[in-house]
Amino acid sequence: MWTITHDDVTAIALGAGILGTGGGGNPYLGQLRMQELLRQGYSVQVMNLEDLPDDALVCEIGWMGAPTVGVEKLPRGNESEAVIAALEQYVGRKFDAIACSEIGGSNSIAPLEAGAQTGKPVIDADAMGRAFPEMQMSTLFIGGVSCNPSAMVDAKGNCIVFDHLEDSFKLEQYARPLCVQMGCTALLAIGAMSGAEVKRTSVRDTLKLAKQVGQAVLDARNTKASFSEAVLNITGGVELFTGKLVDVQRRTTAGFARGEMIIEGLGAHAGGFIHIAFQNENLVAWRGDRHTRQDVMACVPDLICLLESDTGEPITTEQLRYGLRVNVLAIPCTDKFRTPEALKVVGPAAFGYPDVVYSPLHKTPGQGIE
């Protein structure tokens, strides 16, 4: 195990903001909450996935809601304790460890907060290797792990326990409107999973990966090096585009931030445009002109990430605005999302783009997201 430090939180939040592909919640707010817990004397340990006993009982922690709401509606602070206690009371047993639902954005920090407040270790793995907007888009559930039972709480202490749902699609279907009623943000504790199930289906070492990515950006700032190269040296992938945001169409509806952005090329990409559609997270990037989409450059489940050109900071959905200078990166996803079964859940057709054909980015074995 390794113990999380103040500097670790800074690096993890930065790296997870990049891996979040625009979603997962604002990473800086998660960073502030976790660093305040450390300042108050709390601590949390991270457990290697291989060290998790097969018979351990594990739940997954993560926030549901629209990122555009999450920056305005702050949590109460005790949601982690409340939601885990509710699920423990239901199953009649204490959880041995906490898993991360997604490594993207502030959802990478949520299990660390929960671990600090409950004294439970956090597993160095997650269920996406990125962020996705819907509950079923998870390596755990695609791999056959049950989402039953699950619990959710809001900032006012309202708590709901799901006793039995048909599958994770039903969890999304029922939990999303409840989340809207809770103000478009709610914390979930999902499942009562065995250690063996978690080890079989999780994306491993993603907290370490987020920390490495974030530290690479911090080092690049100090040395005036390329932020894109610093990230891609760790994750693999390519830089798709550099330019300026010239149009953002965004709306918060049904618990999601949905829309599209247009980026006009600068430098080597001057005269060109790309369009990126998003649903909390960036979904598809097309080459085109100012008004029309043309060729697909990258799409889900691979990662489409925006960095602010001057600082290397990740640009999340709620931060999109006219005039931002950005570097657009495409990063290969975990192999667990590249199977035919997984692509039915996380491929472009699952987001309403049946005409977009997924062409996997080249991936170097042993590099990036496992």
Structural account:
- This protein is of the alpha+beta class and 370 residues long.
- It has two domains: 203 residues, 3-Layer(aba) Sandwich (CV3147-like fold); 125 residues, Beta Barrel (CV3147-like), CATH 2.40.390.
- It has eleven helices and 16 strands.
- Strands 1, 2, 3, 4, 5, 6, 7, 8 and 9 form a nine-stranded mixed β-sheet that branches. The chain has a seven-stranded antiparallel β-sheet with strand order 14-13-12-11-10-16-15.
- A hairpin with a 2-residue loop joins strand 10 and strand 11.
- Helix 1 runs antiparallel to helix 2, helix 1 packs across helix 9 and helix 9 runs antiparallel to helix 10.
- The protein is globular.
Features:
370 residues; alpha+beta; CV3147-like; seven-stranded antiparallel beta sheet
- Would you tell me the overall average pLDDT? 96
| CATH class category name of the largest domain | Alpha Beta
Q: What is the CATH architecture assignment of the largest domain?
A: 3-Layer(aba) Sandwich
CATH topology of the largest domain: CV3147-like fold
Outline? globular
Ranges where pLDDT stays below 50 over 5 or more residues in a row are none
User: Helical stretch count?
Assistant: 11
- Provide the gyration radius in Å: 19 Å
Number of domain units: 2
SSE succession: EHHEEHHEHEHEEHEHEHHEEEEEEEH
- Give the termini distance in whole angstroms: 20 Å
Helix content: 25-40%
CATH superfamily of the largest domain: CV3147-like domain
Percentage of β-strand residues: 25-35%
- Strand tally is 16
Major sheet summary line: 9 strands, mixed
Query: Structural class, from helix and strand content?
Result: alpha+beta
